[in-house]
Structures are given as C-alpha cells and as structure tokens.
Design a protein that fits this description.
This protein has about 400 residues and is of the alpha+beta class. The chain has helices at about 5-15, 20-55, 80-85, 120-125, 150-155, 205, 215-220, 240-250, 260-265, 265-305, 305-315, 320-355, 380-409; strands at about 65-70, 75, 90-105, 110-115, 130-135, 140, 145, 150, 165-170, 185-190, 195-200, 210-215, 225-230, 230-235, 255-260. The strands form three sheets. Strands 1, 3, 4, 5, 8, 9, 10, 11, 12, 14 and 15 form an eleven-stranded mixed beta sheet that branches. Strands 2-13 form a two-stranded antiparallel ribbon. It is elongated.
C-alpha cells in the first residue's frame, strides 16, 4: 500500500486529540458536499428547461430548413434547391415565404410575421396538434384566403379563434419610394379570413407574432413571385438526420445554409447555455469558499500531528512523503464531499422528477408544467466531479506545502 495514502487515511478517520479538528473535518466534507449537490441540481434544472423548450419547437419547426446565406430569399427553381429536393431521404418539402407586416383589426394593430406556406404544411409539421377552436387548419378555399394566428396575437388584436371582419395586412412596396403625401400608395394591402382556429406553441416568439397564410398570399403581399425564403423538410422514417443534413450542406455549398431545429432557434438556446454557464461559474466560486474549511482543518491537523511528524521522520519518511500525507488528506476530503454531494444531488433530482416537490410557485397552473423540470446529463455529472476534485486539490496545494515546510524546518 502507498505509505502516504495509508497514513492520510488513518489521520482522516481516526479520532484526533483535539475534538474541534474532527468537527472542522466533518464541516469541510459537508461544505464540499452541499456545493456539489447545488451544482448537480442547478445544472439539471437548466437541462430540464432546455429539453422542455426543445419539445415546444417540434410542433412548429421542420426537421431541416434550407435558407439563403445572403439576402432574405432565393429563386424557387434554383438548381441547388432542386437537387436538394430530390434526395431520396426527403418525405415532405414545403416552400415558405416569410417577412414582417402590419396587421390591423378594427381599431387594434400589431407588427406581425407572415409565414406563407404550401398546402402540405400540416404534413410537414405537427401544427394540427397545437390548434384551438372548432374549425380546422385551412389555407384557402376557392378565392378565399385564411390566416391561422398565434393565440397571443389573437388576444392582442381583440379576437379569439373566430373573427367576423377581415384581418387587414399591410407591407411596404419593394419598388419605388415612400410618398409621404400619400403613404397608403406605398403599401401593399390584403386581407385574411378566419379558419376558426388559433395555434399555441407556448412560446412568445410564435404565439405573439406569427400568422400562417397561403404562400400565394405572402408572395403577392411582399412582391416575391417565384421566390422562396426557405425550403422546409420532413425526412422519411428511419433517416439519419445528421447524415442527411451533412449531405444537404455539401450540395448547398456556401450559397445556402441547412438548419436543424436547434439551429433554427439558435438565439434561444444560446441564451440558455450562457445562463447555465454563469450559474456554473457562480456555484464554482461558492465551492472554492467551501474549500477554505479544508485548509483550516488541515492547518489544525498539521499542528496536532507535530509529534507524529517527528516519529515518521525517525522511521525514515522523507519530507516529500510527509507533505504528501497532508495533501492526500485534503484531497480525500474533497473526493468524499464530491461523491456524497453527487449522490444526494441525484437523489433530489429523482425525487423532483417523480413527485415535483418544488413547484413553480405562483406561476404553477399558468404554465405547461407545475414543477421545475429536471434532466440529468451524464456529461454534466462528470464535469462536476472533475471541477470539485480540481478545485479541492488546487486549494490545498499551496497552504499544505507552506505549513508542512514550516513544520519540518
């Protein structure tokens, strides 16, 4: 057995001559364990919200989306887009034209995003799963054009799933200059009827801004005849999404970009990652503070074991081995605290998953979930273990070497 490790283990678990050293050692373990537990629980909650938000987007966003790298739109018959459409893994493809406009209903108005889609949009996404009302998802019938509105936008404009009058949509003309003497001539105007339903993605970006319309309506409004803002794809069952995405990107080259669902919502997920990273940094600082207890415990232990150090030196132990004894004890305290903290943190995460112990407070019942979501990722647990061990090892290195050196002089 390694000699310094054997002595360090004896010192850690044996009763000291001064009872305060035992108490401080126990406090050190508890401090590291609590900080580790906080890291496990906090990062798992961030993971839970990340996974929860990802499920919301799947009802509206396509599996893959091809957009121009430069500009807002591209020609529908572009050879690159035609080649991508013909890939054998593609099951459904929809052309989309998307841009901003002004919606007016009665005396209320709002800036909106018009998303013009083809008739197979319901086959491309799960839009029918998030509709509310007694109508059905419909884009056009004969000469009538329908607009499916986000639930929050409908509320802001003062109607529900049904509206009686026309919903007027205005967009600036792409040609010519704005005539301030007669600004109305500088805008394209069109109107939509109600299909009797609204959609709810439970995300403000969509529910407060989007109106789904026929693609012909969007092209006429924005002057985009023969153009597309994006191509949206659903793949055949069993297709490898990452492999197909890579193949599409090779065909697209530098002219188009292929986006998966996470990349389509890059800003949202980037913010969540930043928040998670900041929480990790703050909790690591708390862990560093907890490690000062280890320094105090080792300082008292070194003083308490003066006579033992003399005995060890007489038995032939080198100064390096004696220093390693106290370094190993500090590292063992960190390791024990890390293991206990991770186990307790995993237990709390499991209890939250099973029973929803911690609710969302006053928001409970108003959100899609009533309790904080939790998702444990193995890589996070490994990162936490490495962090705790690294912080613990580094924090005791200099103090122990300094105190032991003074003792051995």
């Amino acid at each position: 057995m390694n000699f310094p490790f054997y002595i360090a283990r004896r010192y850690l678990f044996s009763k000291k001559s001064t009872n305060a050293i035992n108490v401080i050692s126990a406090i050190s373990v508890v401090g590291v364990a609590v900080a580790t537990m906080a890291l496990v629980v906090t990062l798992s909650v961030f993971n839970g919200f990340h996974d929860l938000v990802a499920t919301f987007f799947t009802a509206f966003d396509p599996q893959l989306k091809v957009v121009p790298v430069k500009g807002k739109s591209s020609a529908t018959d572009d050879p690159i887009l035609t080649q991508i459409r013909k890939l054998p893994q593609v099951d459904v493809v929809t052309e989309c034209v998307e841009d901003n406009a002004l919606a007016i209903y009665g005396e209320k108005q709002a800036m909106v995003t018009i998303k013009g889609v083809e008739d197979n949009f319901a086959e491309l996404t799960h839009i029918t799963d998030i509709l509310y009302g007694d109508g059905e998802f419909e884009l056009e019938a004969a000469n009538l054009q329908y607009g499916t509105v986000g639930i929050r936008l409908a509320s802001a404009l003062g109607f529900g799933a049904h509206w009686k009058d026309y919903l007027k949509i205005y967009a600036p003309k792409r040609e010519g200059q704005l005539d301030m003497t007669n600004p109305q001539d500088s805008f394209e105007e069109d109107s939509l009827l109600s299909p009797g339903v609204v959609f709810s993605v439970r995300q403000g970006k969509y529910d407060s801004n989007y109106i789904i319309t026929p693609i012909s309506f969007a092209r006429n409004l924005f002057g985009q005849q023969g153009m597309v803002s994006s191509l949206e794809f659903r793949l055949k069952p069993g297709s490898n999404l990452n492999k197909v995405k890579k193949e599409m990107q090779q065909i697209a080259g530098t002219k188009f970009q292929v986006l998966d669902r996470y990349e389509q919502q890059a800003d949202t997920f980037r913010i969540m990652k930043i928040e998670k990273f900041i929480a990790y940094i703050f909790l690591t600082f708390i862990l560093m503070v907890a490690c000062f207890n280890i320094i105090g415990s080792l300082s008292m232990l070194i003083i308490d074991k003066k006579e033992d150090v003399v005995t060890l030196r007489n038995l032939g132990a080198s100064n390096k081995q004696i220093v390693q004894v106290f370094l190993l004890e500090g590292r063992m305290i960190s390791a024990i605290g890390a293991v206990i903290g991770i186990l307790v943190g995993l237990l709390l995460c499991w209890l939250q998953q099973m029973f929803g112990i911690v609710s969302l407070g006053q928001s409970s019942g108003n959100f899609v979930i009533d309790a904080y979501p939790v998702s444990v990722h193995p890589w996070d647990i490994l990162l936490i273990l490495i962090t705790v061990l690294a912080v613990g090892f580094i924090s005791v290195w200099y103090p122990v070497r300094y105190l032991a050196k003074r003792l051995l002089e």
